[in-house]
Amino acid sequence: MMMRATTVATLLVLALHAPREAAANKKAIKVQGFVKMCTLSKKLKTVQAYATNKLTHWRAKITALNELHEDLTILAKKSARLPDDPTITVIRLLKHEAKVLEQKYHNLAEAAPLAATVAGQAAGAMDEAASIFYAATKHGSGGKYCLEQDNAATKLAAATEISGCITEDSAPVTAAADAAAAEPRTTDITTKWAEATVAAAAGQGNNCLLTQADNNGGYLDSNEVSDGIKWAGGLLKFTTSQLSGRPWVDTSTELAAIPVLNSAKQQLEGLAARWRHTTSTIDNLLKLKEPTEQTFTDIDSNENVLNPGGTDKDLKVTKEQLEQIRKKVNNYREPLSAAGKLESSRNSFHLQDLTTNTTVTIEKVNAECNKDTQGKQSYKTKEEECNKAKDDKAECDKLEKQGCIFNNDGKKGEKCTLSDKAKDAAKEAEKQPGNDGKTNTNTTGSNSFVIDKTPLLFAFLLF
Asked: Would you say the C-alpha torsion 168, 171, 175, 176 has a positive or negative sign?
């Protein structure tokens, strides 16, 4: 009798348990969420490629700018005539733009590796999830699958739609290190997910062990892991409440719930300013290296751009003047390039500069300016120098070589005056070209100085 009661009890338990297994959550997931995820993964894997491509192009431009600056400097130094203002402005602009772009280059080169690593980590988490779910689908039989085609209650037949993540063999798709790519943006991450993708994720299939939520062999044991399991770094999450909830996280509103993807967004925000640089001025200047006639645009700049803290002076180079400068550069480069001697010519010029006493420094320029202006002061300036001795005869006598004499009959406080002979000599000197006693301030700022009207002006501007 007891055995019969036990048998009945056992059968009752089995009967009660059978419906529970049949109703177990084993829902397949519609592929549309994976499609969106893999589109994002593919974009994140281009961060390094885009940065590398940008750095490569910038390095080429920096080199070209420096070579143009070098060749125009050589041409100007070898010329017996002082370069015109447009040429001097272009030489200075070439150096300025090269320095600015060089700094941008280093800033991007410093930040890109970490950004690419974080973005790649986020993409890797997505690829891994896609790989597992697709493998469980491709190799399932008898209606067992985890990824379901959109608008059809059948399993996903190929990995084509999720090729941003994996290959047909479920292998992760790697990023091409040197491929040109469109700029990865934070909006690639934060674009709002369609409500149908986020909410209506459950498919018709009901035989996926990866989503199974019970205590009978599924990943989600209803007695132990009721909080659920996160996939793709937290982008996909489902619990024992089945897929009828919202398994996909909407990155436009809940990004903080996906730490690795949130970090990738922050890295892209930091890169945005680093890899964007307006190069219209540079592109205009680089036309100077072309061998044929170019369509230039006028250059409008300012002295305080090239020399921070300098005067507020407009600098303009017309497109016609730029074309003339291009011709000069081409006429210099063409025969040397044809003979394969352009680089050796540059090296020879630098060697000559280093081994001869022709290197121009600010100190040398100042010394030459002072030497060149001695004896060229105006009559009034010389008179003022004498008057400084006032009524002190001893002090006045010390200035005798400068033409000063002591006049007892002079005004009180001004008895030391310039002799008539010295006055005549000073007035005669003022009549000579360049001896008007006036000076010309070429520039201002930390490296500024006052220089007489001599060809040393161009030497200062070039170095």
From this structure: negative
